[in-house]
Amino acid sequence: MAILKVLLGAALLSVAVAETCPGHYTPDVLGIKVWVPAFDCPTLVDNPSSKFCCGTKNNPHCCSDCTQSITSVVACITGGTLSYAAFLGLVIGGAVLLIALFICCCVCCCRGCCGSRQPAVTVVQGS
User: Fold this and answer.
1) SS3 helix, strand, coil % of the chain, rounded to 5?
2) Contact assessment for residue 14 and residue 89, using Cβ atoms and an 8 Å cutoff
3) Which of 49, 63, 91, 105 is 20 to 30 A from 21 (CA-CA)?
């Protein structure tokens, strides 16, 4: 039970409120490349539901459609609320938990089957 609490706690610490659009260079009017730093979605001018980074790597913007996300593979699976690391941690933690449960069940079953065996007793009646 303690392991489960640790895994859930680690996952909750990695929860992200929104996606971050990567920084990029964009040409300005004169053709000079200008660095635009990374930003979190939604920005102050975006709709609060626009929590996904969409568009292209050279022209990212915030949107509300997770299928258009360019930054997260798991955006639609998690609804944009878990970071990739948290999602991966939950998958690995779940697999470890299932393996541990399987091993415990096998050990308990083997002890129950093998530990209770009594040697066969042959009764010979005298004539």
Assistant:
1) 40, 20, 40
2) yes
3) 91
* Closest CA relative to residue 4, chosen from 107, 106, 94: 94
State the DSSP string of the chain: -HHHHHHHHHHHHTB-SS-EEPPEEEE-TTS-EEEE--EESS-TTS-TT--EEEEETTEEEEES-GGG-SS-TTHHHHTT-B-HHHHHHHHHHHHHHHHHHHHHHHHHHHHHHHHT-----------
> What is the distance of C-alpha 126 from the center of its chain?
72
Are 41 and 32 in contact by the 8 Å Cβ rule? The answer is no
Structure tokens, 91: 């998958």
